[in-house]
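task queued by scheduler; priority normal; single chain, no ligands, no partner chains; default sampling; output format set to structure tokens
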Amino acid sequence: MLKQIAIALFVAASTFVHADVTHLDCTQIGADKYKLSYTFTGDTHAVTIFASTDAQHSKGPALLKTSEPTVTVQAGKPGERVFFFLKADSGEQREVSIRHLPLEGTPNFRDLGGYETADGRFVRWGMLYRSGVLTYLTPTDYKYLSHIGIHAICDFRTPNENAVAPETWIPNADVEHISLPIGTDKKNQDTTASMRQLLAANPTPDQLRNWMTTIYANFAFSAAPQYAQLFAKLKDGSLPLLYHCTGGKDRTGVFSALVLLTLGVPEQTVLNDYALTNRYIAEAGPVALKKMMTASGSSASFMTQLTPEQQKAMMAADPAYLRSMLQAIDAKYGSFDNYRRTALHVSDADAQELRNRLLTN
């Protein structure tokens, strides 16, 4: 009995002294200035901070060593993407960067890096990017993006949307363009007819929210072949990958959820990431919103007919929409893992391979 108690106390003590740096956050506050915040736990009392333009490796001398939980640092050059590596005095290293990229021509371009999985690993920074329409990228944006090494770009928009707002990217860049059109009805088609019918009845905001939940279920089921094709690209190593639709909310938000869940990120974290669209669209202002609506093609004219309350129901990144889709998946397949295997053609071995490639300790 005494031996068992001693072992239990040793395990408890080992757990208590485990070093960690948690709740990392990075905000860009100037052309080359950043605010870093984090929390020390266990026996960690200080960190040494390094900066690099390489998402996978810290390079160069340390910026500083500090025991402060919030610091402002100067790193990189204006117009460069910077990644920070924080090495704890107890030996552990964590990485953080800005999630939202400061582009002029699209307001919802962001990195999926840094999210923690259920088993304590983290999604690699600089590997998976999500965005809205790319049509309005500027030369300044091209210069910024040229340093992050995107290998493949997937466009979920329909041919009609592409005709109205053609895809643009860095001139002469060596990048693979992938078109996987996704509509929003049960046949994976454009929604002009169904939207016209819906609006003819002057729907209430609640009716529009119900329509949105139906659309999200359609994404999970009728658009599964398109999402499966992009998962195949991930399995082939097409990284770093950028995928987008018009607003970067619905079709893009669904694929983000499918990827993060496959990697083992908890559902609540996935829902929180989805809701970030609300913040970045609001911060961009009405001009960016108008451009985004114009890029949606024929749907834009229907959106202008809605009241502000109706527009909010359709434009908001409401976690209830995504949650309803996940519930529909569970109802039809029994679990997300069964859906992943059956509809997305991502086997358990495939999922493990993706985790090995896209997660870090």
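post-processing summary
- The longest helix spans residues 205-222.
- The chain has two domains: 1-97, 99-360.
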